[in-house]
Amino acid sequence: MAGEDIRKDLRELREQIEALREAFSRVTQPYTELAGALERLQDFSRGYLRIMDLVQRYGGVSPDLAVPGVKDDISRHIVAALLDRGERNISQITEAVKGRRGTASRRIVRERLADLEREGIVVATRGLHGRTFRVSDDVRARWSQVLGFPKYGDRAENVRTQGGGTNGR
Question: Which class for 7: exposed (0-12), middle (13-18), buried (19 or more C-beta within 10 A)?
Fold first, then answer.
């Protein structure tokens, strides 16, 4: 009989321990979520402070910091436009460059895109409606490092769709 009582007591203890674990899990869940939110806030704050540091040191944040080898004004504006919006066709890029510098011809933009593609800065993709261009993964990774957002490349689409795309100016 004593052995049976001990087994019964052990079962009850196990059930109580499991009930305590479940209760503890429910109680700690909001704190776990809060810790995750605080971590995201810290990441955001670090990125913001990094950008402020770049502005203070260099007078602004521009793609020149990620692609210092691009000396041509139009090419720099092309890279900035592609970092702003991702994939674009020649017409969209030409309009973006015009908006940034006032003038740009489609022919010159096409020539500069060919140069940037040869240098590995820009990647072209053939689609149903012609070619589209985007910055290379390497340039995107360097831009992310400059901004202090190492995983920007993984989240670029999410950031742009939420209205938080990079300025590039």
Answer: exposed
